Amino acid sequence: MTLTLQAITDAVAIGFRTADGRSPQHISRTGRAYRPGIGPHSENAAVALVLAELGDLLPATACGQFLPYPSAPRQKCDVWLGNPVEWAIEVKMARFRGDNGKPDDTAVKDLLSPYASDRSALTDCEKLANSGFRCQTALLVYGFDYPDRSLDPAIDALELLASAKVNLGPRIEAVIGELVHPVHADGRLFAWEIHPR
Question: pTM value?
Answer without folding.
Answer: 0.95
